[in-house]
Each structure stands twice: as C-alpha cells, then as structure tokens.
Write a structure and sequence with these properties.
The protein is an alpha/beta fold. The protein is built from eleven helices and eight strands.
Length: 267
Amino acid sequence: MPTVRANGITIHYDVAGSGPPLVLIPFLGADCSCYAFQVPDYAKHFTCYSVDLRGAGGTDKPDGPYSTELFADDVAAFMTAVGVERAHVAGMSLGSVTATWLAAKYPASVRSLSLHSSWTIADRYIRDVLDGWCVMANALGSVTETVISGILPWSFTPKLYTEKPEFIELVAEILRGGPQQPVEAFVRQAGAVSTHDGRPLYASVAAPTLITFGAEDRLTSTRFAPALQAGLRGSELVVFDGCAHAPISEDPATFNRKTLEFLLRSR
C-alpha cells in the first residue's frame, strides 16, 4: 500500500474505486483495514482513501501528545499531498471526532461529513473505560490482545458473540495477523479521545452531516445524539438496531445501505 509525507510524518493509506473522493478515518487502535466491509460497496461510487492515523498501522508513531485536532491536521495535509482538494469525509469513533475537527478547521475541504459512533465531549464513563483499556494494554504488553479481550466486547452485542462465535474468532485471527500497534502509541491515541471536546467546533461545520449510532452501544450511546444534532444544525440521524459500537462490522449490509443513501445524496 502507498505512503505519502504529510505534516512531518509518513502516512500509510489505501485507495480503491473511482468517482468523487471519500476519505475514511479509522477508530482507536485500528488501521485502514477497519473499513474492509465498506470499501467494496463505497468504491462502486467513490474513490476511497482509507488512511492510517498517526500512531497506528503503517503511519509513523512519533512521541509527544496526540490530539484530535492534530489528527485532523494530518488528514488535511494528507489530502493536499495526494491531490484531493475536497472530499466526502467519514469517520468511526476516534475517526468521527477527527473528521469533526477537519470539517470545522478546513471547511472548504469537506463536501459531506459522516460521523459514526461519535460524541461531544468525553464524559467520565468514556474516560474510565479508556483508562481501563490502557491499564490492560500495559499489563498484557499487547494492544492486539487488549482489543480482542477488552475492546471487542464493547464493539459487538452479546447476541453476536452467542450466535456467531466463528465471526469473533475470525476477527481475532485477522487482528493477530495485522499490524501490531505499540502500547505507547495506543495510549497516546487514547489520550486524544479522552481530551476531545467538539462543542466549540460545531458552529464552524458547514458540510451536510450524517450522525449514526448503534442502538445497543454503551460507550458512545445515543445519549450524545441530542447535543450533536443541536450543534450540527440540519444533520441527519440514523440508529442501527441490534448493533453496539461497531455497526460497520456487526451489520455491514444495513450500515452500507443507509450511509450510501446519504453519501449519494450529497454528491
């Protein structure tokens, strides 16, 4: 997969499809392959640029504090480096708040905004969960095993674990065979999640916006929906029944259909 120098780091990415550009931003601890269930459908209509954020995948992992604003600066510089002036932008969890910063700080660069499993400001519940993940990562010495044992149960519903254990095992196998994020880089990314406050940004977001949640998500639940919709005026809300934090993987067929409806209307 290709790389490009942007904002002082080397950014790893993948590109597929043809049509208007669509930038896909991953979640905490993930690389660009987290959109594996979306790209085949999205690429029929868009040129999909899936990026690895600073600290994950094949992108550089420099020392120092990370923030969602810094991630957005990286993505904006990436777009310039690959010749994309304006794009549809979608992000999941950490990717969603990075996308919010991108749309607020670089409004001319964002044609539409898709925010999946997002939040306004990290509350005590989110911060305590993140602290637990960081403790686990340090104790295990492995981000991958932390994701498998500690994060996937937040990402998927008990029903999926019970009815499709083979899917959980497949995800674990894929994670163990993929890029291994250093613990210190995971902790820096988690710090960006904990310190994010999107509330001052919303007035600067001009792009048409889709907000989605999993109905059974506890981490970034629909408790954030009213404030997000109030701040992002004219935004649309979709809630995926039977899904937890990661509808992109738990019910990709419904997720892709609903999100593509918005993207195609926003072309």
